[in-house]
Amino acid sequence: xxxxxxxxxxxxxxxxxxxEDPKPKPNPAATKTNLASHGRHKLFLKRNEDxxxxxxxxxxGDSITEAWEGQKAWKEFADFKPVNLGISGDRTGGxxxxxxxxxxxxxxxxxxxxxxxxxxxVGGHSPEQIAGGIKAIIDELKSRKPEIKILLLGxxxxxxxxxAVGDTKAIPAAKLHPAIKKINDIIxxxxxxxxxxxxxxxxxxxxxDGGLPASTMPDYLHLSGKGYELWAKAIKxxxxxxxx
Length: 244
Fold this sequence. Notes:
Layout: H1 2-14, H2 39-50, E1 57-61, H3 63-66, E2 82-86, H4 92-99, E3 112-116, H5 127-144, E4 149-153, E5 164-166, E6 170-172, H6 173-187, E7 196-199, H7 225-242
Parallel strand pairs: 1-2, 1-3, 3-4, 4-7
Antiparallel strand pairs: 5-6
């Protein structure tokens, strides 16, 4: 009887017994997306196989990064032996797979990486999830290329002052703007001053009133030739420091 009383007292102090909390669900923005069948992925592997000693700076991202190709401003990076690994429509999970299982950077002698990814995740993932996906990319890069320096760019601004923009789902600018700000507020903290360096260059694309002019972003998302010139100018000095 005494043992039962003691046990009852202990249970009372501890509160009601409940089932164990379920395991947290994996972050969908940090879950690898297999792009093995994508044409550009295959192109990357072939290109990098043919130039095993080239490629000191890699640009990782989506269509905004992919469109560097053909831009006059791309020549600003010639001395860095740049490699463009942008794929239109890509998200954090795709980039994560491409630098790990996809082996897109395996043969590259990298000194630095430029990351600008996450805008295609908006609407499907929360800012916290997107930031977690970006962190997973950073960790994977550092694991595979321990000496690499990473220039982490804030997600670029997008959307007009009130227009609905997006991919398959229209996302009101009123929701886009705070979401992108939240993502950037979180990933800014990944800057450790040693191997990861955060920089938000979004302001260079805006006009005096804080809007996105057609001269830099004709569709409120993708950059014009002038936009790429602004991007190149904004980070060239940083790459010079990171690749010394």
